[in-house]
Amino acid sequence: MVNPIPPGLKKIWDNWNIRGLMLFSLFLQTFLILFAPLRKRTGHKLIIMLIWSVYLVADWAANFAVGLISDSQRDTHDNQCNSSRDPAEKSYLLAFWPPFLLLHLGGPDTITAFALEDNELWLRHLLGLVFQVVAAVYVFLQSLPQTKLAIPTLLMFLAGTIKYLERTRALYLASLDRFRDSMLKEPDPGPNYAKLMDDIASKKEANLPTMIILRGEHSDDKPKPSTIVEHSGEKPNPSTIVEHSGENSNRDGRLNDVQVVHYAYHFFEIFKGLIVDLIFSFQERNESREFFHKLSAEDALRVIEVELNFIYEALYTKVQVVHSKFGYCSRFVSFASVVASLLFFYFKVKKSGFDEIDVVITYALFWGAIALDTVAFFMLIFSDWTFAVLYDPKNGSKMLRKYIAATIGWFLIFKRPRCYEQKKHSCKLLATPFLLRRWSGDVPGHNLIKYCLKGRPHNFHKVRDDVYRFTEKFIPAFIRGEDNRFIHLINNGVSQFWGYFNGKVTHLINKVIDCFGLTDFMDEIRYVSHVPLTEQLWEFIFTELRDKSINAEAPEVAKKISSARGNSILKNNTYLEPYLTKVTYDESLLLWHIATELLYHTEEEVTRHNNEDIEKGENEDTRHKHREFSKLHTEEEVTSNNNNGPEEEVTGHNNGPDHRALSKLLSDYMLSINLLWPLRLRSAVRIRHNTFAST
C-alpha cells in the first residue's frame, strides 16, 4: 500500500514533532501571560476569540507533547538493544521535558478560566493533574538508572506540580459554591425580642430611663472607611471626604488614586456576594449609599471600575491564590526550584551525547520559565491587589501607609481614566490608553430595527486614531468628492455588482454558519455596536441613580424604584401604563426599545428637514423668520434658566447633554445585555429569545 505521506515530510515530523510542540507550548504560555489581560480591555470579538483559541490550544499542546514523549521513550527502550549507539543517551533530555509541560499546564497568572462554567470543572482539572503527574513519573522512571538528570528533573517536577496545583486551587476558589461559602457569615439567631420587650416594659414601669441601641454588624476586624459618616439631610459634598489613615484627599475634594483602590477593595469584599445572589444587610446598604452620595461622578466611575477589576481577576485569574500566604510560599519555592535546576544543569551535567539542538531547546525552556515567572512577579507587584493590601490599616502604622501611598501613587496615575474631546459632537469620550485600561470603556448596543434590516450597527462616537486623521487630511479632495462624474459612475457600477455578489455570498455563508450553530456568535460580531462611554452619559446615569438613591430611604421605596418599568414617566399618559405594567419584563423592554427608536428617528427627520430649509434659504423671508424664531427661542431659554435658578440644569444642544442620543444609547445597551448576555442579569429579568423572535 502506498504511503500518502512523503518520506521527507515524515522524517521532519519524526525529528521535530516533540521539539516543535515544546517550543509551541512555550510560545502559547508567553502569548497568554502578555495578551490575556486584553480580554477585559476590549469588546472586540475577534481579539477575544483569538485569546479563547490560544487558551484552549495551550492545554492541548502540552497534553499532546506528554503523550508523544511517552511513546518516544517506550520506542527507545524497545530498540535500545538493536542500536549501534546507545539511544538512551539521546533520550535523557526527552525525559527531562515533561516537568516543563506540567509547568505550562499550570498556566499563567493572567488567565485560569474563560467562563464561569470553567471554574466549576476544578475537580476534573484535579484529576487531570493526577494523570499528568503519573505520565511524567512514567517517563522519568523509564530513563532510570542511567540518566544524569535525576536531580534537575525532580526540581522541575516540584515546580510544575506547584504551578498545576495553583491553577486547580484558583478554579476551586472561583467556583460559585466556594465563592458563596466564603461570603457566608456565622449563623446569628439575632436578639431575643420577647425577653427584650419584657425588660423594657419592666424598666418603664419602674420609671427607669430606657434606650435601645442597635449595634452594627461590623464587629469583625475589617475596618470601615472613615468616609462613611452619619447621614444628614445636607446636600452631599465631596470635600467632606477624609481618608481613614489621616491623609487628606486632594484639595479639590476628589479622591486620590490610592484612596480609589482602597475603597474599591473595601466594597469588593462586601458586594462580591452579588455574583452568587446573596442578600446584604441594611448596614452594608447604607454604607454604600452614604459613600457614593458624597462622590462626584468622575470619582464614582474610578471606584467602580477598580471594583469591577477586582471581581474579574478573582473569577478568571490566579489572584486569589497568589495573594495569600500559600501563594507567596509556593511562588518562592517554584521559582527557586527552576533556578536551582538550571544551575545544576549548566554546571553539573555533561552535555556530551546530547543533540546540540536539544540542549538549545532545553535552555530556551529554562529561560522561558524564568522570564514568565519574572513577568508574573512584576504584574503581581503593580496590581491593584498589592496596592490594596499594602495600604490596609491592619498592615503597619499610619506613617508607613503614607510612605507606601507616596511610593506607589505615581504608578496608579498612569491607570487613571482619561477623556478625549470630540469637537464634532461636543462631548468627551473615555479614551484611556489601551494597555492601561481596567475595562474596555465601551457601551455595547444592539438595535432591533437594524437587526431586522440586516444593517450594520451605527457608532455615535469614535476615537479616531492617527492613521485615520492622516488619511482624512491628505487624500486629495477630488477622489472623495461627489462632483467627479467618472469616479461617481465607477462607484455606482461597483456598488451594484457588489450588492448582487454580496447578497449571494452572504446567503451561502449564513447557511454554513447556521449549520454549525454559530448564528448567535456571528450576530454579536455583525450587529453589536461598541460606543465609547461619554462623560455626559456617565454623569447622566450617575446623577439619576444618586437622586433615586437619596429618595430611597425606606426599603419599600427602594423596592418600588428598582422594580419600576418607566411608568413614572407616563403620569400624564395613564392609558399607556397597561402596556408596561401588565406585560412581562422582556415585552416591556422591547416596547420601550421600539418606542425609543421610533421617536429618535422621527425627531431626527424633523430636525434634518428644518436644517435643509434653513440652509437653502429659498427667500429672505424664510431667513428673517428663522432669525426671529431663534431670537425668541434664546430669550425663552434665558428666562427659563433665570426662573429655574443656578442649580437647575438646562438641557439643550449647547447647554447640556443630548438626552435624545443618550436615551437611544441606553435603549440599545439594555437590549444587548438582555438578549446577547442574559447571564449578566438575574434569571427573573432575562429576556426570552422567543419573544424577541416573535417581535
UniProtKB/TrEMBL annotation:
The keyword Metal-binding does not apply. Residues 606-636 have a biased composition (Basic and acidic residues). Signal peptide: none annotated. The chain crosses the membrane at residues 16-35, 47-69, 121-141, 328-347, 367-391. InterPro entries: DUF4220. Residues 52-451 form the DUF4220 domain. Keywords: Membrane, Transmembrane, Transmembrane helix. Residues 216-250, 606-658 are annotated as: Disordered. The keyword Flavoprotein does not apply. PANTHER family: OS01G0798800 PROTEIN-RELATED (PTHR31325). This is DUF4220 domain-containing protein. It comes from Acer saccharum (Sugar maple).
